[in-house]
Every structure is written in C-alpha cells, then in structure tokens.
Amino acid sequence: MQPSRAISLISPLAHVDRLFPADLTTRMVARRLYDGIRTLPIVSPHGHTDARWYAENAPFPDPARLFVIPDHYIFRMLYSQGVPLEDLGIPRKDGGPVETDARRIWRRFAERYYLFRGTPTRLWLDDAFANLFGLELRLSAQTADHYFDHISECLGKPEFRPRALFERFNIEVIATTESPLDDLRHHRAIRASGWSGRVVTAYRPDPVVDPEFAGFRENLDRFGEITNYDTLTWPGYLDAHRQRRAYFREFGATSTDHGHPSARTADLPQADAERLFLKVIAGDATPEDAETFRGQMLTEMARMSLDDGLVMQIHPGSLRNHNPTVHARFGRDMGADIPTRTDYVHALKPLLDRFGNEAKLTVILFTLDETSYSRELAPLAGHYPALRLGPAWWFYDSPEGMRRFRELTTETAGFYNTVGFNDDTRAFPSIPARHDTARRVDCAYLADLVVKHRLGEDEAHEVARELAHGLAKRAYKL
Ligand SMILES: [Zn+2]
Taking 80 as the threshold, does the pLDDT of residue 4 lie above it? Predict the structure, then answer.
C-alpha cells in the first residue's frame, strides 16, 4: 500500500508534549520536570562524531552526505525494503560505481520516509528538520526537493558549520572514539585553534586487542612503531597500551571503550597470559583462544584503569557483520550488526573477583540483550562498587527502550548506579533530539512515580537533573 500523498505538517511529530504521558495529571508533572532541565547543557560522553569536523570546521557538503550516507539507522531500513546500498551512495570496497548525485539519493530517501513511522529515527529526524532547519512540512516525495534546496542553502551559511552547531546545541563536552593507532591529529588541531568547544577522545583498543579484528597482526606492528615498544612481547605490548592511554589522556580522554562480541573476562596468571599472547601473535589462536585473550585484556585494562583513572565502557553482544554479502561488498558498520544473547553473571566474574570491590574503578556496562537488565545487570550494578549501568543502547536507544530500561533496572539498581544518557551517534544533527528524547522519557517515568506517591516532586526534579547532566559528568569524570 502506498502512503497518503497529501502534504502534511511536521508539527504533530515535533509537538511540545511529545513522549509525555497521555493522562493530563501525569502529563502536567512531566511538563514541570522537563521545564526544569530542558535547557541544561549536553554532556555527550560516548559517541562517534568525527573530530575532523570540529578541527576543520568546513561546511557539511549536502543533505544526503549529512543525513543519509553516514547513518546506518537510515540505510539499513531502506536496504531492508529492497533499496540497493549503491543507490544510496554507500561506497563499495572495490571502488565500483555508486550513486554520487546527492539530490537523487535524497529523493530515494524522501520517497520512503514513511518506512520510519514509529521508529526513533523518525523522531530524531523530524526534530532536526523542524528545530534546526525550521522546516514545517513533513518529508515525502512531494517535499523532497524543497527539503533538499532549503537544507543545502542552510548548510552554506556560517551558522550551520560544525563549531557553530556545536555551540547552538549547547554541548558542554563531547567525546569522540579513536583507535590507539590514531595520531589524534584532529584533536591536536582543535586545541591549537584556540576554539573553546570541549572535544575529548576515548581509547578504543579493539583493533589491537581483538585477534579477530581485520588486520590485527599488522595493527600490532604499527602499535610498536608508534610507541617504540616491542609489541610482540607481552610486557612490551602492555607498556605500549600504558603509553598510548597516557597520550590519549593528554587529549582529554577520560574513558576506554571495548566492543567485544561477549562480556567474557579472564584473569589468567601472567605466565599463562603471556603464553596465550604468543599463541595469538603467532596466528595459532583458536576462536576460543581469541575469546579468552579479549577477556584477559579487559582485566588488564581494568588494572591499568586503577592506575590512570580511565573509566571502562564494555559494549558487548553485537554479532558484527551478520550479512557476509554486505560485509564483502561494503565493509563493517553497514547496518548488519545484530544483537545476540549475552551472559554477564558468569562472564564478568573473573574481572569482578579481581577488581569488583574497587570503588575507585568504574566499569560501565551496556547491553543489546534486554533480558539481562533485571536478571543480571541491575543486580550486578546494584551490588559491586566498580559497576555502573550504561543507558539503553543502539537498538534500544528509543522511547520504549529507555522506558523498559528504567522499569527493569530502577527497583534493583536505583538511579544512581546509572550514568545518564549517551547518544553514541555519528549523526551530528540528531544529537539535541536524542538527548531531548531521553530527557522527556525520563521525566515521563519520574512523573509516574510522583503521581503514584512513590517520590516527592522535589526529589523528582533533583533526579531529572542528575539523569540529564550530573550522572554522566561524574561517572565519566568530565
Ligand atoms: Zn559507540
């Protein structure tokens, strides 16, 4: 069935009461709570915006390259409905032909905008279209060209350059994510420029920690060249991490990030860890060895964090590159990463046995397995001083996902073992919309507690501020 062809106003989707409770009493409380936090600055402690944007402050090229091509939330949906990724301008690994005409890419997206009904992507995009670009008509085939022309014109203006948007978004601090092999030149340039925007890096060592990461062995050689340590020996390899972590801290890093397939940790005697390392670099590791090695490295990273203070984030449970055809043709991060069942209780035990009681260590846990919230994650975070719960992530970074997160974790872990919101995004214009969504959903949840007389409204105001701002700042030491 084709969607309605009428041109409609965007406004119902950017409504002042969006995401608030339907009944008026609760809604009024939610409004009051939200009014108290609406203008708080954005703390974005984890994400994937490109440091180059802030360093070079060049205009974003066009609507397709701003909204469609970098956003796997968008192109995976279009792909699922039969649109070839080539038609959306996604670069092929073999350099083969893909669409380069931005307007044609935009039209293909606009014609299918109805596919996003009910998704958070729709919410974020409408928010950006209405509040950032002042668009009033809903995006559709009929309005595609109007959108394209209007957004293109805006992008040419100084107030739509990355730094101006950063300031307009009221971002207090944003973290990017870089590999240990990154020279952080863009972070250096940002600092050298004298611009006051606070952009920090985060240490994401997967390329030199995961034996199954593409190019792992060459990455280790490069790791050695950069650090002048012999990264083919176990002590040299660990020293290289220490040195690189210190370098990242010079560029503001307060955290590390670990995107492992599972939450498996290990705490081997050092002689066994060394033997495993040598097996890994010899290329003799079985998949089980690789899994143990990644797990051992989480414990090594926790040990280093106790020395240098970096907060650990563990992002497990994504089965990466599920679609081998898309992976071969377009590479990684192409919308084919699928959540899988994840164990925490047994998997984290070696790390927790060693460091779980350290109040000076912070390990922030994320999940793509919602069944673990009330069964495993909230009980763990509600006990171990070293553990905190990260917000609803990725597939659950949605109004319903956030609501489920609060409902399934609050009664066991409370609010103060969580760390506020992070947007985890590559899609720069969606940042205010994503934070605003989290603030609204949290205010709706708190309003419900208030009207049921489980929380005083004065307390709810305090919690709302913490969830929007304070918890993220403190958990990530920003
Ligand atoms: Zn991330």
Answer: no
What average pLDDT does this structure show over 425-433?
A: 94
- Ligand 1 centroid vs 332 CA: distance in angstroms? 14
pLDDT tens digits for 22-70? 999 999 999 999 999 999 999 999 999 999 999 999 999 999 999 999 9
Full DSSP string of 6-48: S--BSGGGG-TTTTS-SSHHHHHHHHHHHHHHTTSPEEE-S--
Per-residue pLDDT tens digits for 173-192: 999 999 999 999 999 999 99
Sequence-ordered list of residues with C-beta below 8 angstroms from that of 80, at least 6 positions apart, any chain: none
Q: Which amino acid is at 198?
A: R
Determine contact, residues 341/369, Cβ cutoff 8 Å.
Answer: yes
Give Cβ neighbours of residue 404 (< 8 Å, ≥ 6 apart): 370, 373, 392, 396
Cα 258 to middle of ligand 1, angstroms: 9
Distance 181 CA to ligand 1 centre (A): 17
What integer is the mean pLDDT of 410-421?
A: 98
Sequence-ordered alpha helix ranges (H) in 210-346 = 216-227, 234-250, 270-281, 287-308, 324-330
Q: Does residue 12 come out as left (phi exceeding 0), alpha (psi in the -120 to 50 range) or beta?
A: alpha
Taking the complete model, does pTM exceed 0.85, yes or no?
yes
Q: Ligand 1 centre and the CA of 185: distance in Å? A: 21
Q: How far apart are the first and last CA of the chain?
A: 50
Cα of 222 vs centre of ligand 1, distance in Å, is 24
Distance 127 CA to ligand 1 centre (A): 22
For residue 48, the CA-to-ligand 1 centroid distance in Å is: 6
- H runs (alpha helix) in 282-418: 287-308, 324-330, 349-355, 372, 378-381, 399-413
Distance between Cα 46 and ligand 1 center (Å): 6
How far away, in angstroms, is 8 Cα from ligand 1 center?
35
Chain segment 293-352, per-residue pLDDT in tens: 999 999 999 999 999 999 999 999 999 999 999 999 999 889 999 999 999 999 999 999
Tell how far the Cα of 13 is from the centroid of ligand 1, in angstroms: 27
Residue 416 burial (CB count, 10 A): 14
CA distance 69 to 90: 6
- Contact between 81 and 115 under an 8 Å Cβ cutoff? The reply is yes
- If you measure from the C-alpha of residue 130 to the centroid of ligand 1, how many angstroms do you get, rounded to a whole number? 27
What's the 28 CA to ligand 1 centre distance in angstroms? 35
Please report which helix (H) or strand (E) contains residue 388, including its range: strand 387-389
